[in-house]
Amino acid sequence: MTDTSSPQDTRTLYLEDIAVGDRFVSGEHALDAEQIKSFASQFDPQPFHLDEAAGQDSLFGGLAASGWHTAAITMKLFVAAMPIAKGLIGAGVELTWPKPTRAEDVLHVESTVTEITPSRSRPGRAMVTVETLTLNQHGEPRQRLVSRMVMFARGAD
Amino acid sequence: MTDTSSPQDTRTLYLEDIAVGDRFVSGEHALDAEQIKSFASQFDPQPFHLDEAAGQDSLFGGLAASGWHTAAITMKLFVAAMPIAKGLIGAGVELTWPKPTRAEDVLHVESTVTEITPSRSRPGRAMVTVETLTLNQHGEPRQRLVSRMVMFARGAD
Q: In what residue span(s) does the MaoC-like domain sit (chains A, B) (predicted)?
């Protein structure tokens, strides 16, 4: 088990470099109201993502980032923290947002390898499950992401 | 069962307006290489999302949109097609990307209500499960999204 706390890991990770329990901690992304509104106006133009007063009147009780914005920032932090050989290509994911992401949040992600399933048909290839928590500066979780991704051994096709 | 094919539905949907099997079909979003690279440079800066030649050399066999970009475009189309009262607030989602999204894709989404589970503790409130397929102009699926969302009856808190 390795605790890898470098926000920008410059290695390239192959299958033999990881084990269940390995943890990758990213750098930080400071959010603000302008980013929240800009993303929302392009992709999730609902009042509580666009306007403070509308946010106050909503279930969120204040301006909240789109969950898809939190997911996109998570990916940015994750690709820098866990540089997988041939790239991070997700087969499928599950996402939950336990609490809304706010304009004052400074986000980072903590990813843990939870399962490694070698391919039966293709040697040197495995499906790797990673749980990624997106946390703010107070350690409060904003998103939980479980991803399944293909990883390759050195020299595999 | 209602087939609602208006790309911009101007109604506001309450719990009593929907039933299992109801379907919502969105308008279209035409993608291009510039949008793919712009999103990727902000949120998923991997070579196969940023450069055609790098895409050719990758598992994708060509420039491919980030799955998170496909997800974000899906949300834009979905919020216009299924205007839920008090907003579309996802409790949790599952996502798979059966094939990469390409620069020449013109995307639309087709959402089907698959389950309605009334809240036991809060009358007039239910957890609604919706399956949303994101398809290109040839009907080829690019993403499957299953979302669980809160919906409210008229007059509920």
A: 30-122
Q: Is B53 on the interface with A (CB under 8 A)?
A: no
Q: Which CATH number characterizes residue A36's domain?
A: 3.10.129.10
Asked whether the beta carbons of residue B68 and residue A72 sit closer than 8 angstroms, the reply is yes
- Asked if the model's pLDDT at residue B9 lies above 80, the reply is no
B6 domain residue, yes or no: yes
Residue B57 within a domain = yes
- Chain A: residue whose CA lies nearest to B94: A94
* Chain centroid to CA B70: 8
| A86/B58 Cβ within 8 A | yes
A30 domain-assigned: yes
**Which structural domain range is residue B119 located in?**
2-152
The CA distance from B74 to A91, in Å, is 18
| C-alpha dihedral sign at A99, A103, A108, A113 | positive
**B75 CB within 8 Å of a chain A CB:** yes
Query: How far B69 CA sits from the closest chain A CA (Å)?
Result: 8
Encoded amino acid at B157, one letter: D
- Which tokens belong to A23? 């943890």
Q: Which two tokens stand for residue B111?
A: 């959402």
Residues in chain B: 157
Q: Report pLDDT digits (tens) over B69-127.
A: 999 999 999 999 999 988 888 889 999 999 999 999 999 999 999 999 999 999 999 99
What is the structure's pLDDT at B2? 46
Instruction: Please report whether residue A42 resides in a domain.
Output: yes
Q: Do A97 and B86 touch (CB under 8 A)?
A: no
Question: Tokens 């895409």 correspond to what residue?
Answer: B55
Report which of A90, A42, A86 is spatially closest to residue A66, judged by C-alpha positions: A42
Q: What is the ipTM score, two decimals?
A: 0.91
Residues forming a β-bridge with A96: A144, B92
